[in-house]
Fold this sequence. Notes:
There is one protein chain. The longest helix has 11 residues, at 82-92. The chain has a single domain (2-104), classed as 3-Layer(aba) Sandwich (GIY-YIG endonuclease). By secondary structure, it is α+β, with helices and mostly antiparallel strands. Strands 1-2-5-3-4 form a 5-stranded mixed sheet. It has helices at residues 50-58, 63-68, 82-92, 95-104; strands spanning 2-6, 12-17, 28-35, 41-46, 71-79.
Amino acid sequence: xxxxxxxxxxxxxxxxxxxxxxxxxxxxxxxxxxxxxxxxxxxxxxxxxxxxxxxxxxxxxxxxxxxxxxxxxxxxxxxxxxxxxxxxxxxxxxxxxxxxxxxxxxx
Length: 107
């Protein structure tokens, strides 16, 4: 399922969901952040909601994001299992994955 939403007057954030619908279960997310400072992208995988990870990164959760923040959330996908989420994160970090992101989220 494809979901587009605008974040606080900024660019559209795109969200995809994969897996079984309904019910309460652990979700895993692949997310893409864009640096407001350098326009670089950061792609990550987490069990937290992407907006929570955005907050973590914007408050300096690791060295790379501390140096390149602040960030905005531009893309996310949700998965019902960790293995699928990690595989998708790995794909989005390949040349083909970066081209895909370029096609839907221009820099």
